[in-house]
Structure formats: C-alpha cells, structure tokens
Amino acid sequence: MDLCWHWCRFEELGLPGLYEVLALRQQVFVVEQRCAYLDVDGLDPFSWHLCGRDPQGRLSAYLRLVDPGRKFAVPSIGRVITTPAVRGTGAGRALMAEGVAGHDRLHPGQANRIGAQAHLQAFYRSFGFEPVGEPYDEDGILHIDMVRAHPLRPSAAPFEGATPAAGPSPIRGVPLGSDVVHAPDGALGERHDP
C-alpha cells in the first residue's frame, strides 16, 4: 500500500481536513471499538498532524504528535489510526515509522511518551518504545505507558530537558518525510492516548 504522507499543524488542516480526521477517529475509536469517550481533548491545536492518503486521496492513516509540555513533559505520539480498508497492508507500520521519524526531526534529542493499548506492546517495542509502570484501565481498555528514548541520547532520562513549545516550528509547512512510503506488512487501528 503506497500512502502519501503530509505533516501539518492544526490550523493547516482546514475545516474539511479536520472533519475527515475527527470522523475517522470517531469511526474507529468510538464506534468500532465500542468505547464512549471524549476524543476532542483540547490537545489537537497543540499538535502536529500526520495524514496518510491513498492514491485516490482518501484519508487512510493518521496520528498526532502533541507538543512537549502539553500532555507530558516530552512530546507524545497519539491517536494512531488506520482505516479498516488498509489494515494488513503495512499501513500501520509505515504510519508509525513516519511518526517516529517526524518526531526525531521536530524534537531532536527528546524522548517520546505514549499510552499504548497493552496488547500492542510488541508493535511499539519494534519502534524503540519500552514499558514504564504497570498496565491500567482506560475507558474499559487495558493500556500501558511506554517511552522511547531518543536514539542519539539513549541514556537520557525520558522526562528531563523537555521544554514547552513556544510558537510554530521553524520547519512549519515542510514535509518531514518522503512524499510516498511503501508500507511493509503490519496493521494498526487503535487509540493510544491516555
């Protein structure tokens, strides 16, 4: 599955783009997973948004990268999702690879902390995330916090040295990864924000 990746800030999503993102998140996280929760949590305006579109331009994969100092002291990848149509094609693995690469470019030297669905620990470990703490119930789904130390600073404590975001990134509007990624095997369609 070839997807075209695009990074943007909240205000650059535009109304149609925001509607697509929120509709996809509701379709999977609320309806498919039968989990009533407030998806619009106030963090979207303080995040980078990664959208993966199929050759027909349909939103097929999405995640957000929350600015440091907003959710955690360090940046946080979350709302990782793929449509049912692309699951099993590697789109989830390609999405996460682009998300991690974007994090490393936007936040060099900083760790990343996520709240992952516990059954997906092996998937996230394949991207360098390690569990911290004990599993916990969130909205009826077992989760666990995981941290990925930056590869250039593997011994750095995951919560030290993070500073809150101050204004737009100096690379705003510049794509952080390749325009088209060939997705290897793998699938993903889950929310992992605590």
Unreliable runs = 154-194
CATH superfamily of the domain at 2-107 and 166-182: Gcn5-related N-acetyltransferase (GNAT)
Terminus-to-terminus distance: 29 Å
Molecular shape:
globular
- Helix/strand/pairing category: alpha+beta
The count of helical stretches stands at 3
Tell me the β content. Answer: 25-35%
Detailed description of the structure:
This protein has 194 residues and is an alpha+beta fold. The chain has a domain at 2-107 and 166-182: Aminopeptidase (3-Layer(aba) Sandwich), CATH 3.40.630. It contains three helices and eight strands; from the N terminus they run βαβββαβαβββ. The chain has helices at 10-32, 91-106, 121-125; strands spanning 2-9, 47-53, 59-66, 76-82, 112-117, 130-138, 141-148, 180-182. It starts with a strand and ends in a 12-residue tail after the last strand.
